[in-house]
Amino acid sequence: MLRVALGRIAALIPLLIVASFAAFLLLQLTSTDPATVRLGDTATDEAYAAFRHDIGVDRPVLVQYGSWLAGAVRGDLGVSWTSSTPVTELLATRLPVTLSITVGALVVGLVIGIPAGIAAGIRAGRSTDSLMTGGASLGQAVPSFWLALMLVAYVAMKTPLFPATGYVSIGDGGVGDWLRSIALPSFALGAAAAGAFARQTRAGYVRVLHEPYIRTAVAGGLDRRRILWRTALRNAAVPVVTTVAGQAAVLVGGAVIIEQVFALPGLGQLVLNAIRNGDMPIVLGFVAMMALLMALIQFLLDLAYALVDPRVRAA
Predict the structure, then answer these.
(1) Average pLDDT over residues 223-234
(2) Predicted model pTM
(3) Which of 299, 249, 116, 262 is nearest to 187 (CA)?
(4) Domain spans, the chain
(5) What is the DSSP letter of 4?
(6) Helix 61-73 vs helix 2-28: angle between axes, to the nearest 10 degrees?
(7) DSSP 3-state assignment of 219?
(8) Per CATH, which fold does 94-314 belong to?
(9) CB 116 within 8 Å of CB 132
(10) Other C-beta atoms lying within 10 Å of the C-beta of residue 162
């Protein structure tokens, strides 16, 4: 497993370089002047030039990127051009909000999708299968931002149990208030994931239940529940693990939009404001953090494979 971890770290380096350089070039194409954003429209030309020199945007493009990359390797992501706050501090402050709704959405997807997929797979071809499959397709088809707006309008505005906006951390309001503040965003974000998990679990069960060893176990008189919930579930879980890893990456990106609907102070709000203001250190720091998260997700995927499939451990 140590070899896998080192391999993931090695693969992260070119990923970080390519992703951050692409974001860097895209920001170069925008017409936003960080000096104007920071100093306003009434500053002198000398003040604008001095600020651009201080943040280094008057240097060649490759020199600017090389300077940022050298700092990123040391763990220094720079300072925000608009607030003069270290980027690592800004990201660390906003990350718990984004992770809370992302993990919450993943839990919603697993709790709803896996049982629905099992029920559909066991009863393949029956009315239950059609109902579950239709529900999964609907969950994947409904845009998460539209569902979020509906939840705000018809749930949050109708009952005081769930807030329409805002985030409460565990330290400020306890576990109960924290769960209430992320419940609706997590459900809006996790509905599509639930549909994906249900469809993948259903397909895995249908495939596994037609395998010769399952038919042999049934013919041998083994308990049906043992076959369905231990043997079949374990073998059907392998492709589901891959889907979970893929959906985790999608959910992190989708959280950016959901945070806007519920006015959550997460990474999405921070990065969108940074793009609007041309605050390159924040955008590049966000890209670096996302690259690290994707590498971590892939590493956890490898661990999950080893737990589900003994053949992976043997290899």
Answers:
(1) 69
(2) 0.82
(3) 262
(4) 2-73, 94-314
(5) H
(6) 150
(7) helix
(8) MetI-like fold (1.10.3720)
(9) yes
(10) 19
